[in-house]
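ASSEMBLY PREDICTION REQUEST
Request ID: AP-0331
Submitted by: J.K., bench scientist
Number of chains: two
Total residues: 558
Priority: normal
Notes: Please return the full assembly, not individual chains.
Input sequences:
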Amino acid sequence: MAEPELLLDSNIRLWVVLPIVFITFLVGVIRHYVSILLQSDKKLTLEQVSDSQVLIRSRILRENGKYIPKQSFLMRKFYFNNQEDGFFKKTKRKVVPPSPMTDPSMLTDMMKGNVTNVLPMILIGGWINWTFSGFVTTKVPFPLTLRFKPMLQQGIELLSLDASWVSSASWYFLNVFGLRSMYSLILGQDNGADQSRIMQEQMSGAAMAMPADTNKAFKAEWEALELTDHQWALESVEEELMSRELDLDGMFSRELPTGIF
Amino acid sequence: MASVSEMYDVTWEEMRDKLRKWREDNHRNSEQIVDVAEELINEHASKLGDDIWIIYEQVMIAALDCSRDDLAWTCLQELKKQFPGSQRVKRLGGMRLEALEKYEEAGKQYDSILQEDPTNTAARKRKISILKAQGKNTDAIRELNEYLELFVGDQEAWHELSDLYINEHDYGKAAFCLEELMMTNPHNHLYCEQYAEVKYTQGGLENLELSRKYFAQALKLNNRNMRALFGLYMSASHIAASPKVNAAVKKANVKYAAWAANQINRAYQLAGRGTKENKCSVKAVEEMLESMQITMS
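STATUS: Completed
Returned structure:
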């Protein structure tokens, strides 16, 4: 069953594999800078900033409440969760779900996102397919089923060829995803060339709560805070402290700082 | 007057790096900054590249501290040329007006920033500091409270509010502010110590117990906090000396105070390693501790 290994022309390596890598990389870098140029300012309203900080404060109260006295913790918990006029109970924000149709700024954002990411990918993918067609480029190191053949071997009409041998278009797509870590290295985190991350965001953004959904966030915080109890971390701090001598090593050194440098 | 680089024999790169370190650590050593940066700007401006803008900002604030309006004006003009219409530069302009005590104009400047961008925290805080500079403490407290209702997460503001309350002797509210800081920074021994001091000042048995606990916590976080060590000793001795406590509590607190006194002695022994001046201070500490023991029992 073992098929004879195909020996590819080394010219393929020089003139196909490497150029595709370079092209993908450079296109990614260009996309990054273009996305910076096209970026529109995200204006936050005062209310949004305020609400996000309140949520952070409540979370900190839950996590670090054990460092303040019990009375203070209860006072704050009461302020947030009280039945009649606790902050989380009382505050209802107007929630406007920003659908792309009604909110013009989101529409332009989406369009820009599409233009900078999807369009170049399609264009370049098509061009590579047209230019580097008719031959096998590389072999993936794991065996694939025959179902993958029409997808990965576009342009090569050999029925008997192992599905592991792929064409240049698939090498291009492999590069698009593989060079993600290179982009992080060179352009820093959060770069505009990181296409798969953007696609992930687009998919999950539709499913997860939009930023205007503070009411749900408040409700979730209220529940979490209700469940939190106060375990004072300082119950036996004196005993812990006095179990050993203080570490005063190197506290008084002879050298004094002189001047600026 | 010799220049800084001649006095300390350093290159311009070292001066630039020193400025960066001061910037990152948020040092307020304005005179040193002015000395170092003035030379850097005058001699080596072209070599600094884009760093020069942030150095202008740093120097401008330092120059305002040292009443060097000439230097501040130069920096402001350069920044205005480079970043026209920037809110950050406008704020610096407002600070300069504050330094010249032109509070009305400074207030107008900050209002114009807030009109453009209501979420700008820097402009709001500068308006509050105008009130503080004019001595209107109660107004400053009121404005700061309103600010904190909007921006609950601003730790710098909580600390400022606690200072203002301490000045007004409203220790309960100051303690509240410090609790916020302790929650957001549980490993910072200085907040624990300051909270303990406020509780100690408030007085009353419960508050003394709390202060003793928080002094101990500060010591646990940083074994070398001498102020917390003395605080622990004083709060423990006060509780032990109070007539309202029962015998068990008294015994525990006497034990704590004795331990603290021991540690103080140890520290003083380590400090001088037996030199003549140190012997006097060690003796003074021992006498002080003994006298407190006598008043207690």
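REVIEWER COMMENTS: Chain B touches chain A through 41 residues (CB under 8 Å).
SIGN-OFF: pending second reviewer
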